[in-house]
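call fold(seq) -> tokens
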Amino acid sequence: MAVFGNSGSKKPAPSGVLGDTSARDYAAKLRLFNLFAEPELRQAIAGLQPSSESRVLDVGCGTGEVLEWFSNFVNPGGIVAGIDLAAAHALAARRRTAPEVLVLQADLEHAPFANEQFDLIWCVNTIHHMRNPLAGIKALARLLRRDGRIAIGQSGFIPEMFFAWDSRLERLVHDAVRAYYRDRYGLEEHHLADIRAVLGLLRRAGLTRITVNTVLIERCSPLQAADERYLVDAIFRGTWGERLRPYLPPDDFIKLARLCDPNHSDFALARPDFHFIQSFTLAVGHIAK
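ret:
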């Protein structure tokens, strides 16, 4: 695959707004999300209708599940490649995917590819980790062939859950998560709302014929095993848990801990009225060259 460019000396990977570096590893959480959101992600990929000869690049490929799904569309006539800033993620994706799928550890602003090599770039839950998302999209646009497309996808930047049975606790938990992210990563309020700016970013980067579609990832009780694993491990333990204790009144933290505990009678996922909603937005723009 003659897609490599002259990348020169290796440049240090910059930290993103969530402290992303080449050494950061959250592969387990990425895998849980991909399996949880697989129906919606597969539907989004199918909607792009990649041809059997397409050259596809997954930017921020994580643990490689999406690379496999794209391979089902384009192999054997096309090409699928993936890059991820984190070395651990690239290694996990390389182990998961077929040998013909190229996986590299690389910074998307300095991707080691020649210009105008890909028909479709898929970039989900990645661009808003950057300090300068516009620069990132412009860097990706240079990799597109004539009339190529960039698909920028973003689920809720901070996971939220709707407590149908306790709207007050729902509000307190959402506020606590935002406060934690602001303190932990030094984020401002606009960082937490930038997911709504994808359309403007694509236009400012010079993309045309832009379409935007938002779907709801919606799950109700009873849950599938992949849904329960994601909610318990990635949200209840990984996003909430002990880190929210300083941001909630003691009694409310105890209520939240009980909702998150599979061994407690108040466990949220065992409730017959459990209802989870998370948005996923996919914006697609074309390059004209």
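The chain has two domains: 27-157+187-217+277-286, 167-186+219-275.
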